[in-house]
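FIELD: query
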Amino acid sequence: MLLHHAYLASDLLSYEEGLRPAVAAELIRTLPLVVAAKMVGFYLAGVYRGNWRYAGVLDFVRLAQGVLAGSLISVAVLFIWTRLAGFSRAVFVLDWILTLMLVAGSRISVGVIRDYLVAHAENGRRALIFGAGGQGAILVKMLRDNPALGYRPMGFIDDDSAKTGTIVQGLAVLGNRRDLPRLIRKHHVDEVLLAVSSYPADLVAEIRAQCGASGAAVKQLQLTLE
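FIELD: result
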């Protein structure tokens, strides 16, 4: 349906004075062909093989390539079929832009809604993440992607004072290790998760002592690439 809407909207935007009956008839006649061409372009670019749950920059580059391929195929077929008689050239530019925006937006919105619902779920052990760097961000994403692990990340702790108040993966950096007792009580934290396995032994011992006195467990996690 998004492919239909993009083509129809691009035609409506290209003809400010409104669609003449002849143009409207040609639009309806060519709509199935344009949609089929876009689907072929998506297939050739590998868009349908992508896992949009874990979409990244390269996935959106592939999507843009697929939309472009579909647009070029549709223009080529329409040229052979109609010589583009009666078509505004702006239609195809607008169609490419609208298709990319609508399809990319639909992919992004699904992930955003899912992440929002997971982040605001009330179930799971309430956890603080010690370490607001790259591995901490990966850990939060892993916990959200795997709700069966049973964690609800509440925020980050980091000894770098410059990070306090910043947002990582939608969670605030709430303070440093000296704030642990207060934050554990305030957020009813069940566990403190250490995102990096190479913390000095004395640091880990201090964190464990503070958490133990506040009634929170400590778990040291190591993220590895397999």
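FIELD: remark
The beta strands are 125-130, 151-157, 167-168, 171-175, 191-194, 217-220.
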